[in-house]
Amino acid sequence: MRYWQQNTYRFIVLGEHHTGSLPSSVKEIAPTSVPQRGRPLAQEALSEADLFVLPSVIATDGQMEGLPVVLMEALACGVPTVSTALSGIPEILIDGVTGRLVQPEDVDGLRKALDAVIADGKAAARHSSAGRKLVEREFVLADQVTVFAGLLGRYLPST
C-alpha cells in the first residue's frame, strides 16, 4: 500500500532522546514540521493523536524499557497503538487485540503495521477500545496500592 505517499503527516515526538534531528526516513514519510515536546506535554499530545507509535529497541548497553508508562497512557486515552515486542510491552499491547506489535528493529514490519492501522479504522477502533479496557482493568491505582501494601506487609518486619 502506498498510502504514505498520498498523505502528509505531522509527527509529535515525545521524550528527551529526540533532541537532535529526526532520521531521514521519518522526514521522507512526514515532510511537515516536527514539534519536539518533553514529558509534561505527553497527555496533551496524546489527546491530539490519531495514532501512537513506540518503536522500542535494545540500547547498545543492553538497556531496554520495561513496561513504558507512555504506552499505558496511550492505551488509556484510546489512541490506536503500534509498538515492538520487547520486554514487558507484549503484556499490555497484544497484537491484533489491543494494538499492533512488531519485532524490534523490523522497519518493514513497522511500516506494514502502520499501513494496516491506517487502512482499517474499524479494527483500530476495536483495538483502542480493548486497550483502554485492559488499562482500566489491570492498572487501577487503588488495586495497585493494595497489592503493593500486601507485598510490603509480607516482606518487611512488623513493628
Descriptive notes:
This protein has 159 residues and is mostly helical. It has one domain: Rossmann fold, CATH 3.40.50.2000. It is built from eight helices and five strands. The protein has a three-stranded parallel β-sheet, with helices on both faces. Strands 1-2 form a two-stranded parallel sheet. The model has no long low-confidence stretch (mean pLDDT 82).
Present the secondary structure layout.
Elements: H1 3-6, E1 13-14, H2 24-29, E2 36-37, H3 42-48, E3 52-54, H4 69-76, E4 81-84, H5 89-92, E5 100-102, H6 107-119, H7 121-138, H8 141-155
Parallel strand pairs: 1-2, 3-4, 4-5
Order of helices and strands: HEHEHEHEHEHHH
* Cα gyration radius (Å): 18 Å
- Structural class of the helices, strands and pairings? mainly alpha
What is the CATH architecture descriptor? 3-Layer(aba) Sandwich
The helicity comes to 40-55%
Global outline:
globular
CATH class descriptor: Alpha Beta
* Biggest sheet details: 3 strands, parallel
> What is the CA–CA distance across the termini?
65 Å
What's the CATH H-level superfamily name? Glycogen Phosphorylase B
Rounded mean pLDDT is 82
Strand content: 5-15%
Describe this protein with a few key phrases:
about 160 residues; mainly alpha; Rossmann fold; 3-stranded parallel sheet; two-stranded parallel ribbon
